[in-house]
């Protein structure tokens, strides 16, 4: 059974810092991995999707990497802003890409 | 492309009452999911539909939760009777097997408070 963990559980940084969020999964037989952002009381917004054959994906100040063999993904946020404050969740897609298992999330606070 | 629609946005009920949530997925998305997200935790899959058939409901508390997806489009999730521990955000998501590399699209969720 796939299990997904995220470290750290919470992170507080000053504005402008570069930061890395970590996601680990136990079963490397994945189809893809998706990073989401969740604002308090809101639904999930997709940030980046990495296919199992890819090593990384970039969107603006965000870069997600995937090391399937070691069961790890990282989300890199460059030049953080207060508007980046949210919970970041990673979700691992099973071998059919039709069922995702979520991690518990990392709660990020970017201080002005 | 319209997103995944959910209603109501918020619901407060007393324990032992019943409640129903509605979801309208993205047009053409055959796969629909209901997730439960308890405060401070990641979403947990309750049930997955492929068209109007159930693919996975292994984590659905079937003594009190039920879900249906008539005609393979809209879906409703019902809780009867509700317990205090059912307080959570209920998220609906959809995807297309033809676009399985594109991941999920989520609705805004329904926040349920059981008092």
Which tags fit this structure?
heterodimer, A: 112 residues, mainly beta, 5-stranded antiparallel sheet, 57% strand, B: 115 residues, 4-stranded antiparallel sheet, globular
Brief summary:
Chain A has strands at 4-7, 10-14, 19-25, 32-38, 44-51, 56-59, 62-67, 72-77, 86-93, 100-102, 106-111.
Biggest sheet statistics of chain A? 6 strands, mixed
Number of helices of chain A: 0
**Span between termini of chain B:** 37 Å
The string of secondary-structure elements of chain B, in order, is EEEEEEEEEEE
- Uncertain segments of chain B are none
Major beta sheet of chain B, specifics?
A: 7 strands, mixed
- What's the average pLDDT of chain A? 93
What does the overall shape of chain B look like?
globular
Number of separate strands of chain A: 11
Structural class of chain B: mainly beta
Describe it for me?
The complex is a heterodimer of chains A (112) and B (115). Chain A is 0% helix and 57% strand. Chain A is an all-beta fold and 112 residues long. In chain A, a hairpin with a 5-residue loop joins strand 4 and strand 5. Chain B starts with a strand and ends with a strand. Helices cover 0% and strands 48% of the residues of chain B. In chain B, the strands form two sheets. In chain B, strands 2, 4, 5, 6, 9, 10 and 11 form a seven-stranded mixed sheet that branches. A four-stranded antiparallel sheet of chain B has the order 1-3-8-7, with no helix packed on it. In chain B, strand 7 (65-68) and strand 8 form a beta hairpin. The interface between A and B is medium-sized, with 26 and 28 residues.
């Amino acid at each position: 059974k796939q299990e997904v963990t995220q470290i750290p559980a919470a992170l507080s940084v000053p504005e402008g810092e570069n930061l890395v969020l970590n996601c680990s999964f136990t079963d490397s037989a994945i189809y893809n991995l998706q990073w989401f952002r969740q604002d308090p009381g809101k639904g999930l917004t997709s940030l980046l999707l990495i296919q199992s054959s890819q090593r990384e994906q970039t969107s603006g100040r965000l870069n997600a990497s995937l090391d399937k063999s070691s069961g790890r993904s990282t989300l890199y946020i460059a030049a953080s802003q207060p508007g980046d404050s949210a919970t970041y969740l990673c979700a691992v897609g099973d071998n059919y890409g039709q069922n995702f298992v979520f991690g518990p999330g990392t709660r990020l606070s970017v201080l002005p | 492309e319209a997103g995944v629609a959910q209603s109501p946005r918020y619901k407060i009920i007393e324990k032992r009452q019943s409640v129903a949530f509605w979801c309208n997925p993205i047009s053409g998305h055959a796969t629909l999911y209901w997730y439960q997200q308890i405060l401070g935790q990641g979403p947990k899959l309750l049930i997955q539909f492929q068209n109007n058939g159930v693919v996975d409901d292994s984590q659905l508390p079937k003594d009190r939760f039920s879900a249906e997806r008539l005609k393979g489009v809209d879906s409703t999730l019902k809780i009867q009777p509700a317990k205090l521990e059912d307080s959570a955000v209920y998220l609906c998501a959809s995807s297309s097997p033809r676009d399985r590399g594109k991941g999920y699209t989520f609705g805004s969720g329904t926040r349920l408070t059981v008092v």
